[in-house]
């Protein structure tokens, strides 16, 4: 009777083993990072960690589980607020005219216990990680170059408006992606992504 050969480990499994990602949150983050980089073509990926604290009761401090985050640049915008879309339409600004936006991702697995407290902690720490990312990128990307002087002016006004909206919340508040790994079918699993926003997004009145 012929002996069966054990199949080779997947690229993701090899990466997790090679880097000694024995902690569950590190293994989950490694799989999501691999998916972002190789399937969705994100670039400039970086990782962050919110250490757990088993004795903490303050809802703005970390729960007992360690939380990992990943950030990077997707090839296209993931989400645009409806009012921002309207502004872009009125000012003849296309997505291709804009600089890419760094997006943050929280890796999770299906069935993992996740509460509003976890999300509150992430949003509470997010500005800190955004500043770290800016330092990594060498500061703001600035206004994307345009040959047309009129377009350059429109883009400059857009970025000024964008900066103002970050303070006023006019174009929405903080947002990130919740990555969920579904291993129900076996193997390394499928990763689904959900946009999560801080607070409520009111539908625009037409």
From TrEMBL:
SUPFAM superfamilies: tRNA-intron endonuclease catalytic domain-like. Gene3D superfamilies: 3.40.1350.10. GO terms for biological process: tRNA-type intron splice site recognition and cleavage. GO terms for molecular function: nucleic acid binding; tRNA-intron lyase activity. GO terms for cellular component: tRNA-intron endonuclease complex. It holds the Pfam family Sen15. Keywords: tRNA processing. It comes from the Eukaryota. InterPro entries: Sen15_fungi, tRNA-endonuc_su_Sen15, tRNA_endonuc-like_dom_sf, tRNA_intron_Endo_cat-like_sf. Residues 31-128 form the tRNA-splicing endonuclease subunit Sen15 domain. Belongs to the SEN15 family. This is tRNA-splicing endonuclease subunit Sen15 domain-containing protein. The lineage of its organism: Eukaryota, Fungi, Dikarya, Ascomycota, Pezizomycotina.
């Amino acid at each position: 009777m012929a002996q069966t050969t054990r199949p080779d480990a997947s690229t993701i499994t090899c990466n997790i083993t090679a880097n000694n990602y024995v902690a569950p949150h590190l293994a989950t983050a490694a799989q999501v990072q691999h998916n972002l980089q190789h399937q969705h073509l994100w670039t400039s990926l970086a990782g962050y960690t919110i250490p757990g604290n088993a004795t903490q009761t303050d809802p703005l401090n970390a729960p007992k589980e360690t939380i990992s985050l990943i950030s990077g640049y997707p090839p296209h915008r993931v989400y645009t607020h409806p009012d921002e879309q309207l502004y872009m339409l009125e000012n003849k600004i296309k997505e291709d005219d804009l600089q890419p936006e760094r997006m943050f991702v929280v890796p999770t697995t299906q069935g993992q216990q996740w509460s509003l407290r976890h999300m509150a902690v992430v949003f509470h720490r997010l500005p800190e990680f955004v500043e770290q990312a800016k330092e990594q990128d060498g500061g703001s990307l600035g206004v994307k170059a345009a040959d047309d002087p009129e377009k350059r002016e429109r883009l400059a006004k857009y970025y000024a408006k964008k900066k103002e909206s970050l303070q006023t919340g006019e174009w929405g508040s903080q947002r990130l992606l919740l990555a969920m790994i579904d291993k129900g079918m076996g193997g390394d699993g499928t990763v689904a992504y959900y946009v999560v926003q801080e607070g409520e997004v009111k539908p625009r009145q037409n």
